[in-house]
Amino acid sequence: MIKLSNYVLYMLVGVVWLILELILTQYTDMALLGIIINMVSMIIISYKPTYSNYIFIINASLLIVMGFLIPSTFLINYTIILIISIVLYLLLVGALEPYSLLLSLLIIYLSYIMERVLVNSPVFNVINPMIKEAGINPGLFTLIFAWYFSLFTISLIIVLLIIFLIKKVLT
Amino acid sequence: MIRVIPSNKLLVIYITLSGITYIGLLTNNLFGTYFGIMLFLVFTSYVLSWYLLAILMALYSQLIFSQGSAELTVGSSATIGVRVSSRLPIRWDAELTLVHSPHILSDTLRIKVNDGDYLVKLVGRWIGSTRIVGGIMEFKEPLGGLLVIQRLLLRNVDVIIKPRQVTGSIGKTGGVGGYIEYGLSLEGRLGDLRSLLIYDYERPASSIHWITSARVNELMMINRSDYGSCPIFIVSASSRMLIPRNGKRPIDDALQMISDSVQYCGEVKVVLIRRGYIEEKVVSRGAIPYLEREVRISVIKNYHGSNVSVDIPTYFRKYISEDDLSDIAT
Q: Count of domains in chain A?
């Protein structure tokens, strides 16, 4: 795998975020603040590349806060770009292990299939009115619950598999 | 033989992720919910995959040494090749700490699993015959050490730490338990009286025996054996000899002195004494490390585990056989 320096990597992710913030200027005034902080960060990184991780966290947090203020039209794209940029940066910096990330894509795909099955199940027709009464958006609740549950099931299977393997190999 | 150590950071990250999700849910904000749940998915599946891969790597790994035994002199160092290979064909960074008695010192090694041989430097600290019983391999999650997986890999390597070879005159090593070196070395320097001979003018004048010369009216000299008689060593075989003071054990001084004499004598008699126990042994140079081992193991067995320390995390202690444990204990 090509090993890029932290400086180059931060600059790449900084440019992507700058474009995101430029798009966001039409939705929220905070984007301007984000642009200024991003520019200042890039200048700091040019002099002190060792601070890249801290500056990365500051800028990422700012983008997350901005995300709460934007309308739903641009939302899915924004979220996906943000997640991908964070994960890619961490992967290239060496904070994430590539094989595990590949395996995790498989796990996400499996939980996606399970989530689709769960969402269409009639259980939610019973629960949803109760959720609505509690003042929580039932659509969002279904989404969270289905994803959590499917991932939980997969985790359980993996943990059981690990326990089984440990027992089998070490005894 | 496998140990998983989760970090508190894992909890903090999960609280943050669920915090974002629940803020989104409670304020009916789509971004918070989507972003929180996506991060949660990516993060959980990543940690889970890493956990699974690391466990598989650890379970199917074995430790391989380049040689079955190693020999070194006390105070000096030797290198030994070590390799960890796993059935999972992935190269992973790991840390390896060898498990052995404090007779030798070795550093924690940064290795790659399924990579070539790595050289470990072993430094001989105390004289003796000991054993490397294996190593603890440690995988650390690269995103801030969220999970640490340790695996004890067993593989024996015998290590013999020999006493120093002294080239100069003997008797420089100091005393043993209050007995200084003179009693030992005086006879050794002069040699035993063998006979009286007519003086040979090539021999030093100090060998002339003046009284006899005066009596027979001819220069007579003393013929001595080359090295003199070999001393008998009386060595205490009690636990006191094995307790290090300032990093040195009294038994090492004794063994070094025995070794110095053996250089001249070939073999020496050693009497081991302890309360209710006396044993006489004939020791040659090569047998000195084994003598230490015999004393150590008999002392450790007498103590029945109390006051005996083993340099290995408590968690893994139960997985090492009784025999190996007594080998690496002090």
A: 2
